[in-house]
Records
---
Amino acid sequence: MSATAVVLFAHPAEEASRTGAMLADKVEGMNGVSVRRLYDLYPDFDVHVEQEQAAWDAADVIVLQHPFYWYSSPALLKEYLDVVLEHGWAYGKGARALSGKSLLSVITTGGSDAAYSAAGHNQFTVEELLRPFEATAHLCGMTYEPPLTLHNANHVSDDMRADFLGTYERRLASLLAARSVEVGRVA
Amino acid sequence: MTSSFLFLATVFLAAAVIAVPFFQRLGLGSVLGYLIAGVVIAPILAWLGVDAVAISHIAEFGVVMMLFLVGLELEPAKLWRLRGPILGVGGAQVLITAFVMMATGMVFGLDWRMGLALGLALALSSTAIVLQTLNEKNQLGTPTGQNSFSVLLFQDVAVIPILAALPFLAHPGGFASDHASTGDGHGNDGGGHGEDHGSASDALFDLTTMLPAWGQAMVSVAVIAGIVVAGRFLLRPVFRTVARTRIRELFTAVALLIVVGIAFLMGAIGLSAALGTFIAGVVLADSEYRHELEGDIEPFKGLLLGLFFITVGAQINFAILLAEPLVIAALLVGLVALKAAVVYALGTIIRLEQGNRITFALLLAQGGEFAFVLFGFMISEDVLPRSITERFTLVVALSMVVTPLLLMFNEMVIQPRLKAETAPRAEDRPDDENAVIIAGFGRVGTVITRFLLGQGIQATVLDNNPDQVEFMRRFGMKSFYGDPSRVDLLNSAGAGAARLLIVAVDDPGEAVKIVETARKNFPHLKIVARAKGRTDALSLTRAGAEGVVRETFDGALMIARQSLEMLGVKPYAARRAANKFKDYDLELLKEQIRSDFDNVDEAERIRRVRAIVDELESLFVQDSQSGKEALRDTWVNNPNAEDR
């Protein structure tokens, strides 16, 4: 039995996106990977909790792919995590639904590499700014994978975008392969 | 003949119309207004040779109607919960008061039989005054109101055994000297049993004289059972059939038929008419026609009670009052003080808080209309001499006059002092009304009601389609038949205590009428109304609705949003566009309402709307570069757009 990944893609203005939408479209073609476009599913922010929990249940790898909005996720993804990761299911006494799954953040930013550093004008690295997600994964007993970041997503060259897509795909594939071995062993 | 009747009616009505608003303005309540009106027109009545006593017997029927209305407010379960107060507090009040009066009378040298008879007659309070006052102050649901009502109900029933017992208290020697003059006093026909409020039972129909005691009891039980059974199973289909005819006065006729018919029936078997109609009221209390019945009977009751109070005022015998002012004053003070003391003591026993105890005591401290009836009967049965009943008739009438004054003193002086000491308590509010009233139970009203029920919010629903109401009742919804634009229906549906009125009727004219009525009579109510389109929204806002929802607008917007998605626009983008459009449109509507209120002319109105269109367009267009001209055309030039 092979492992699966679900990409939760949160982009409020996908129609104006140059990179994020392309990345989501491409990885959707991979074996065992499904994409949930949150702003299409829940334009009114009424996230369907049971349906989303079922998606997390079915996946071994959960990917949060989104542009950086004010150093964090767009509002809908925050709303999503607030309502879907319920106490008693995702965390709390006896809650093991997400235990052992992988959480991977895939971030596109508008700033430069240099800007996201202690010396840059954003003061913090993307890894540092993603601490809340890391802590979330930890509380839910998930493995927090090192995040992938594409800076300057609006202006990078097509080659760099293609490179990044390659990294993203290889990362997904290796996570899935590792999980498949595990799944096989358990079975 | 006709002209003298019309003249009499004119006198009565004019007196009421002048006196009642005046006294109400002074905060003394309508009862005192009527009583004083009676005092004022007494000379005119005397000059016309009109017998105020005879009129008062007709007017007492108002009390029968009032008991019917009280019954309507009291579902059987609620009545059952009151059994303690009725038998306990009511019984104690009548017996203790009667015996204390008897003892007092004996101290002053009365024979014990005369003392007891007098005590029994004076123990009864005025149902008419007390319930009218409680109604006016909206206090029937409070602990004080419930206890007062319980006592009054017991008194109403107690009249029957008292009447039966009086002959045994007859003075052995009789009062031959004044027996002969029974013509002009307060004696009624003296026919005997069950001659109470308005049940002018004719000898022809006085079945009871023909039967032995056990037979009488059987007949009584059978009739009451008949009223209950008919009320439960027969009246409902009758109401429905009548309501379907949509002839309003026919419904009123049925309502009157029930009350009058039952009163007659009860009189015929020697029972209290008030008791009979009260039972009928209780049986119908959980019927969907309850509010309509209330609305129909209410005006009759009001007029008859008013007439009754006027005749009480007119009966005040100034000759005696002027001849022995001190004696009468002493008797008056004694009566009120003694009755109040007994009730106050009972209030302590049943643990009413102090403020309520005082109100309770003062409410029930007067003599009642029953006393007039009993005095008349006592004279004919040689229980009391005319010299005594004459004075006490005057004292009872005066005690009715001072009741509103005492209550006002209580309200303005005593209660505020106590209030300062104790914080107001939640139980003082009537608690049996829903916070939400929904007018109109069609497609829209049904959805709202279901949604609110899902949120645990009970709503009282009004609709003038009997079949619809019947249907929803089967699902356990609290719904009532009637025209929601009538103030009396709104009132009896609890608009006085409700917080929100939802107007969901289909007909725009109807909706505006309901909003206007509700706004005028219940200024505290929040009102949300359903409008068809822009024009309705304007008139509903003008009528006083705080929230106006155009039923077609949100639907149209949803269609537009879905269409946009089907054209390939992302759902979230479509949502934002639709919401922005909504804001834009609401802003226009608000401006129209503002212009409407400012009463500006056409040119100014167009200028203002254009200013808003320009302002909002610039915002709108920041997101979507195209379509500006189209928008302008839609909003300014397209006449159809005006009503969406």
---
Amino acid sequence: MNANESLPRSDVRFNAGRTLFLVFAGLLVIFLTLPLIALALRALPLGLDAWMSQTTLAALQLSLATATISTLVALAIGTPVAYLLARKEFVGKKLVDTLIDLPMVLPPAVAGIALLMAYGRRGLLGPTLSGLGIELPFTTAAVIFAETFVAAPFYVRSAKAGFGAVDRKLEQMSALLGVSDLKTFFRITVPLAAPSLVSGLLMTWARALGEFGATIMFAGNFPGRTQTMPLAIYSGLESNLDSALALALILVVVSFGILFAVRAVSPKGLTLA
Amino acid sequence: MDLNRVNEMRRLFFILAFALTTACATPTPRVDLSNTPPTSNPRGALTVYAAASLTGAFTELGAAFERAHPGTRVEFNFAGSQELVTQLAQGAHADVFASADLKNMDALQKQALVADTPQVFARNKLVVITPQDNPAGIHALQDLAKPGIKLVVANQSVPVGNYTLQVLAKLAADANYGAGFQDAVLQNVVSQENNVKQVASKISLGEGDAGVVYSTDAQTAADRVRILDVPDAFNVLALYPLATVKGAGNPSLAHEWIAFVLSPPSQAVLNKYGFLPPG
């Protein structure tokens, strides 16, 4: 069969199809970027007042601190879980795996109300915590709780994939040479999984930075204490639009930078959460 | 490979790509679009932007209006008045705006977005609420200054938050409370919520020790909160004006709605929800 004969006709059809394809691809890109461009056009000409206002700076500072602490918490308590899920078989593994992914798909309002039911004053652990002199709602700690709850799964997922992709032979060789398990973990496993761990941490940090719903429900809204950038944007929409615009643009730029960085460090073939 | 098959696969590929791109381009809204009014305003549909504190009363009035005017549909957007003004100023379409204070109606008038003279249709006053079990033992307004209590108020850009500050200032001017009263109370604020319903819910849930809300919100949550009255001498009477929005898609229906809200049966409904008559 001679395929060349029919090539020109098929080329014409291919070109028409390709044009349509590109038009749709272009529409999506425009649809996604136009609001961001519009935001930048409004925010960029703003004076120093908007960028350096008390509200802006307090929210920025609080957001950076809480997102960083939440990410460190995710690192500490997420790494063992990710390792177990990647390497060990145990009863209920699928269940644990699903539960850990759950906060990623839950509406933040659900996370907020669930956190209240667990750690609120009237919550499941409320009386116990009260007994210890701890009241979480309306504190910065509550912000960290909310952020960790919604963001930690991003790290666990990525770390799990990273640990799963490490060549076990290298670890076995290390063990054969008499190197302790812990040393092997930190010298062999972690460096090999590092790209996944780092991209997971970056995603977690970005998600924590953007957390809104769970925070406003569980932690309330007080400047300098629980008013993170997204909350300040929401409040500012009414009272201080300039500050809200400035904060919104900062969030867009930071988030873009993080996603870009994730692509740079991501191992090939590994997809992110 | 069979050329027909190649073409068929190519076709399939484009169909898939088309489906995918359209699926992606169909806005999967990231933001809550429930505040966005319908772009077209068909005959018989009325869009009312109303203060959050009107939620219960206006919902009931809306149903009554629809019954009295078959074929009409009343759509509400309830939010903090200041939020509604922002939305309207940014080009949202509405027929009627009902504010929880004159300040936000003025703000809308300054934007030249009010079509007729605003009319006051109800009044409201402030009360202090505590959870049913009153964990911080708040029995008098003086107790709001007790160090360490968790007080939830509305942000001062929200009408009720602004009124709260006015009440505190009036109390501080009274010898029984003292000049330091206002600062002492403000020290206890743990959250500045974006609308009055959020203040009420934080107290209903028992997370805060006390909150300042409208008497109407306290009425709604009466089974979960205790109400502490603020004496009239210190209270602020919140005036609720409503007006037709400039560029209303349905101005005649808007006028009918305003007349309907001012009518005695509607006033009785508002009264049931704890509102005071316009005076």
